[in-house]
Write a structure and sequence with these properties.
UDP-n-acetylglucosamine1-carboxyvinyl-transferase, Chain, alpha/beta, binds uridine-diphosphate-N-acetylglucosamine
Amino acid sequence: MKRLVINGGKALKGDIYVGGSKNAAVAILPATLLTEEPCLIENVPNVSDVRIIIKILKNLGAECRWEDNSTLYVDTKNVNSSKAVDEEVSRMRGSYYLIGALLGRFGQAEVALPGGCTIGNRPIDMHLKGFSSLGAKVDEEYGTVVANAENGLRGAGIYLDKVSVGATMNIMLAAVKAQGNTTIENCAREPHVVDLANFLNSMGAHIRGAGTDVIKIRGVKELHGAKGYSIIPDQIEAGTFMIAAAATKGDVTVHNLIPRHMEALTAKLEEMGIGVDEGEDEIRIYSNGEFRGTTFRTQPYPGFPTDLQPQMSVLLSLANGESNVYESVWENRFAYVQELNRMGAQIEVNGTAAEIHGPKKLKGVGLRCPDLRAGAALTIAALAASGKSYLTDIKYIDRGYADFEGKLRGVGADIEREEVETND
Ligand code: UD1
């Protein structure tokens, strides 16, 4: 078993560089199925979710190879199966994008239902309804989605009952080569929705309005390969490092980010009294440890991202006064609170709301990651705490952060990965 050993209490200082967006990459890689020409994709994060998608594409018959540590060559011309039901597929949440991409390529798809982090009930009913509206017959059998558009996919008007990143992007994948026009209303506006649209447009798709709540797609017959498309920076990785800098009373410049994507976070940090200097594609965060609590509610973009909620709650535990957090996207996103309270935090959870009493001095203990972002949050807590922490179940962190501890070491963190023997 691998674990992180963290000696806390050191202020992070220096420069840190953000990689490509995981949530964009897990949709853009399946999107390569929509063309029979090769694609060259840059700024691909080498995280385990991406490695799983690469494995799934290879199992389908695609040729995938890293040209350097962030540039991926993908050629799906030899893929002739629309069936992705291996164990890998159900191991990750983002594999639902294979349904939209395979439907778009072959007019049919058979895909094992996704797993992923256990941060609440994670239905994909709106994805499936969208495929039905486009003319596919969709069934769910024994944990597998079977979708079939015998007469081809046809453009349609689709209204999403709830703002969903996954449904917006998945329907986009299926609709780009459908016959006629598709309009998706009440869309998600996340940066990775825009990135997928830009990627598909660079292949000859006709998608307008990504980044607003109405996306219009004019179906095209063929897509060509993408040559050197660069994935946007990871907004959540950037935010995680920004919060880590503030929590450790540090002074860190986070590079390779898009400041506009970070606005919900920077506004809160400034309100708390934390130093924020915005540059063109970097943000410097500095703090002497004196900052006040605040209240926030997680919301779809441009609201405060749910994927930064656990990290922010750690920071609020260190802040002066009382803070309130309202989680409105996932119903089970406070699994880390028990661990954090064992370190000395005082957080009371009531359903999807948390009341945080600060400031608390955190102490290093043995910790377990309950999910990906909670794992990042507990790492921040351990970096800010006095003494040593041991963090297990770090496979969750590896799903979404490339070289997490290496990057943190680069700004002065005392953090090591070590292999330990287990009795089980
Ligand atoms: C994506 C991100 C995840 C992030 C989330 C919200 C990926 C791989 N994951 O997840 O990290 O936390 O966006 O920013 O990109 N819902 C339904 N029916 C559906 C689909 C969603 O009811 O068919 C609900 C969900 O239960 C949830 C809400 O809609 O309450 C938002 O989910 P969604 O935006 O779809 O999240 P994901 O795309 O799965």
